[in-house]
Write a structure and sequence with these properties.
With 104 residues, this protein is of the alpha+beta class. The protein has 2 domains: 39 residues; 51 residues, HU Protein, Chain A, CATH 4.10.520. Helix content is 40%, strand content 28%. It has 3 helices and 5 strands. A 3-stranded antiparallel sheet has the order 1-2-5. Strand 1 and strand 2 form a beta hairpin. Helix 1 packs across helix 2. It is extended, with a radius of gyration of 20 Å. It starts with a helix and ends in a 12-residue tail after the last helix. The model has no long low-confidence stretch (mean pLDDT 90).
Length: 104
């Protein structure tokens, strides 16, 4: 599902115009990004948590030059789903059949 599909589905279920749903979603995304950039985690009960994770510094390799490089410690955003979210997905996922039409 893409963002446009999500906007359409929410609009159809709530009766709110698509433009308003899109503005609301975009604002939600911006607020989550802004909060994480400020070092503040976002907790949504029943859905999950958007959190900042700290990655330790490590030694990597520049493949083309074949030299070791140091990757400094840094922070990355992460999402941890709520237990109820995980349980709902585990119990309700319907696996789609594989499309072998592209097989060689």
């Amino acid at each position: 599902m893409r963002k446009a599909d999500l906007v359409t589905a929410i609009s159809e279920k709530t009766g709110v115009p698509k433009v308003d749903v899109l503005v609301t979603l975009e604002t939600l995304f911006k607020e989550v990004k802004s909060s994480l950039a400020d070092g503040e985690n976002v907790y949504i009960r029943g859905f999950g948590s958007f959190v900042i994770k700290k990655r330790k510094k490590k030694v990597g390799r520049h493949i083309k030059k074949n030299i070791a490089i140091e990757i400094p410690e840094h922070f990355i955003p992460s999402f941890k789903p709520a237990k109820t979210f995980v349980d709902d997905v585990k119990g309700n996922v319907k696996m789609l059949p594989k499309d072998d039409s592209n097989a060689v």
